[in-house]
UniProtKB/TrEMBL annotation:
Residues 15-207 form the Elp3/MiaA/NifB-like radical SAM core domain. This is Elp3/MiaA/NifB-like radical SAM core domain-containing protein. InterPro entries: Elp3/MiaA/NifB-like_rSAM, rSAM_sf. SUPFAM superfamilies: Radical SAM enzymes (SSF102114). It comes from Clostridium grantii DSM 8605.
Amino acid sequence: MELERYSIINNKNSREIVLLKAFPCEWGRCSFCDYIEDNSTKEKEMVDLNKKVLSQVTGKYKVLEVINSGSCFELPKETLRDIKQVIKEKAIDKLYFESHWMYRNRLKEMEEYFGIPIIFKCGIETFDNNFRNKILKKGIIFQNPEDVARYFKSICLMVGIYGQTKESIDKDIEYLLKYFEKGCINMYIENSTSLKRDENLIKWFCEKYAYLESNDNIEILWNNTDFGVGGEANV
């Protein structure tokens, strides 16, 4: 099926969201991710598709989230120009982008280019260093959550992968609430990768942390298409 690429989030943190195509993820080694199959090297095709998706933006909430299967720095330059034009035409005053940790020293480039506040989201997934890097293959090394918070106001966590522990998830939630302005918690959905979903762990999380649904700064994705974009890519 085709990926859904435009949606409107009407509840907390109301905004429009677009899923764009980009060049291959510079990291591209996360063991749980198969969305990188949506990446491409055919620049004209990507740019043309992205123009069509961006043409749907109305400016309804004056807030736009742009995601792609990787980092915002891997979007074609022409697409970045198109986003900037949409921001101007639709009077967008806040932008959400995703970025891998490797780009942490380049975030100001985007802020200066677009000239509006940007909330950068980083997929930390977990603060358990062993699980994050040896199992999930994230390639993200830091000393403590304060190191991450110096660069990113928002992080994404992953819950429900077989091998995770309740103790590590408790610590992840503690750090999220203590050090970050916003966060997104994703329940793991099995895909074409070999990692398995732990239903018991997700049930435990739901019972213990469902109260976070009432926190305006925390979004929980019980399914990875809950924002209205994504799906199963045609490859």
